[in-house]
Amino acid sequence: MWAVQRITAAFLGLAVIVHLVTIMLAIRGGLSAAEILARTRGAELWFGFYVLFALCAGLHGAIGLRNIAGEWLGLRGRTVDALWMGVGLATAAFGIRAAWGLYHA
Amino acid sequence: MPEPLADRFTPPREATLRRSGGDRRHPTYVAFVIHRVSGLLLALFLPLHFWALGQAISGEAALEGFLRWTDNALFKFAEWGLVVLLAVHLAGGLRVMALEFLGWRARQKDMVAASAGVAIAAAILFLLNVG
């Protein structure tokens, strides 16, 4: 869990910088669905980036919640860890579904 | 009454800080709390963010409808808050990674200040660009 948290953190360190720069550029003059979809559709490399981003964010968030739940609520153990990994993967799948919608639907 | 064993081997200033709760006012402790709270809020927000982006699956009209629904001052303020949380957590995380992987243990207060600077810069940039 510690290693997964650090590996995802290393990727997220770069990905969040890219995401913040994209946000700053995209919000200029307001957001519209047509503008967003014109930028995203068919951009396979960006789709791959966001799939990895969603996977890392989902796992990183769930492991962070697992650490907090362990410290604050005393929820610990292998079964609890497996449940948190499930939460992380489900969140990631939800994010990958959203990325699919933006890049392919 | 004899002095507690731990304090006998602790430098006087550190022992005083611990007794007075002063270590909780240390910039690195404040940075730890901010990193944890920002991470907690971002982790709880993430499924909501994915749900919002997932509107695109139902087509351009659905996404446009959602964007127009959120096009008001309250949501703009919330978006700004989320960008600040993201920048705060990123900057704090880079500090932790520098500490753990590169062993940059010196000048921790400066590292905390630099992290705060990155977050403030992101907050101002968002306000300058938001339409």
Question: What share of the residues of chain B lie within helices?
Answer: over 70%
User: What distance lies between the first and last C-alpha atoms of chain B, to the nearest angstrom?
Assistant: 67 Å
Give the N-to-C terminal Cα separation of chain A. 34 Å
List how many beta strands of chain A DSSP finds. Answer: 0
Largest sheet of chain A: none
CATH superfamily of chain B: Fumarate reductase/succinate dehydrogenase, transmembrane subunit
Structural class of chain A: mainly alpha
**What average pLDDT do the residues of chain B reach?**
81
Detailed description of the structure:
The complex is a heterodimer of chains A (105) and B (131). By secondary structure, chain A is mostly helical. Chain A has one domain (2-103). Helices cover 85% and strands 0% of the residues of chain A. Chain A is built from four helices and no strands. Chain A has helices at residues 2-26, 33-40, 44-73, 78-103. In chain A, helix 3 (44-73) packs antiparallel against helix 4. The longest helix of chain A has 30 residues, at 44-73. Chain A starts with a helix and ends with a helix. Chain B has a single domain (26-129), classed as Fumarate reductase/succinate dehydrogenase, transmembrane subunit (3 helical TM bundles of succinate and fumarate reductases, Up-down Bundle), CATH 1.20.1300. Chain B has 131 residues and is mainly α. In chain B, helix 3 crosses helix 5 and helix 5 (73-101) packs antiparallel against helix 6. Chain B is built from six helices and no strands. Chain A binds chain B through residues 6, 9-10, 12-13, 16-17, 19-20, 23-25, 27-34, 36-37, 54, 57-58, 61-62, 64-65, 68, 91, 94-95, 97-102, 105, and chain B through 36, 39-40, 42-43, 46-47, 50-51, 53-61, 63-64, 67, 71, 83, 86-87, 89-90, 93-94, 96-97, 100-101, 122, 125-126, 129-131.
